Amino acid sequence: MSKFREKYESFLTEFSKGKTMVLSTSENSKVSSRMMSVVCISGAFYFQTDRTFRKYRQLAANPKAALCIDNIQIEGLCRELGSPMDNPPFCRAFEECFPGSFRAYSALANERIFVLEPEYVQRWVYRNNVPFIEVFDIKKQEYEISEYRGI
């Protein structure tokens, strides 16, 4: 296994199955962000939204998006997958991680799933109170970690 693969698999394991994250989208140079319930399945990040919402329109116009939580930022391309109830793996993961949202929204007619395929992941890690920036370039399959010196 390559160093990139080993480190990225470790990151995904630490990330766990589901988190509430900030999703940022844009259209016509206008950026917006909102909290989303996100599940990770096989290294990709899935969420659902109503197709009448602004984030849906923004993703339809510009599939580039970013997710953020704590010291982690994930950039990638989103694509729509259809209705949540037509995707059993998503339903299982989403119901396990966010049962209230699953019950309230997943079966609604306007709900749609998006998957964000990551292209770039960056996170700050600390070793003995020393900050490091860890970068996963998914497209190039490259891993880098460097101490942050602030100069």
Summarize, please.
By secondary structure, the protein is α+β, with helices and mostly antiparallel strands. The protein is built from 4 helices and 8 strands; from the N terminus they run αβββαββααβββ. A hairpin with a 2-residue loop joins β4 (64-69) and β5 (72-82).
Explain what this protein looks like in three dimensions:
- The chain is of the alpha+beta class and 151 residues long.
- The protein contains four helices and eight strands, in the order H-E-E-E-H-E-E-H-H-E-E-E.
- The protein has helices at 3-15, 54-61, 88-97, 99-105; strands at 18-27, 30-41, 44-50, 64-69, 72-82, 111-127, 130-137, 142-147.
- A six-stranded antiparallel barrel has the order 1-2-3-6-5-4.
- The N and C termini lie far apart (35 Å).
- The model has no long low-confidence stretch (mean pLDDT 96).
Spatial order of the strands in the main sheet?
Answer: 1-2-3-6-5-4
Class per helix and strand makeup: alpha+beta
What's the story with the biggest beta sheet? 6 strands, antiparallel, barrel
User: What's the structural domain tally?
Assistant: 1
Strand content: over 45%
Overall, the morphology is globular
Low-confidence stretches: none
Instruction: Give the overall average pLDDT.
Output: 96
CATH class descriptor: Mainly Beta
Reading the helices and strands in chain order gives HEEEHEEHHEEE
The assigned CATH architecture is Roll
The counted number of beta strands is: 8
Radius of gyration: 16 Å
Query: What is the distance, rounded to the nearest whole angstrom, between the alpha carbons of the first and last residues?
Result: 35 Å
- Give the CATH H-level superfamily: Electron Transport, Fmn-binding Protein, Chain A
> What is the share of helical residues?
25-40%
Helical segment count: 4
Per the CATH scheme, the topology name is Pnp Oxidase, Chain A
